[in-house]
Structure prediction request, 82 residues.
Amino acid sequence: MSHTPHQLPDEFPEFAKTLQALKLVDAHFAKLVDQYDEANQKIHLAETNVTPMDDIGIIELRKERLALKDDIAARLKLAAEA
Prediction:
């Protein structure tokens, strides 16, 4: 099994503990993380041609992943400041 790039612990190593803690206590945050992971997995499978997808589909998934990442990042920063 290959390593899927852009996993959240790799993207936010400085927030690894906060990421795990928020997933346990904040259901909405956990849902965002799940959505990010799902989009990230779909992108990885498309980019490695395991599940081929047209360029437009990949671009839309990348936009979705980026929006989720931005939301997750903002929540992680707020939690770390609290």
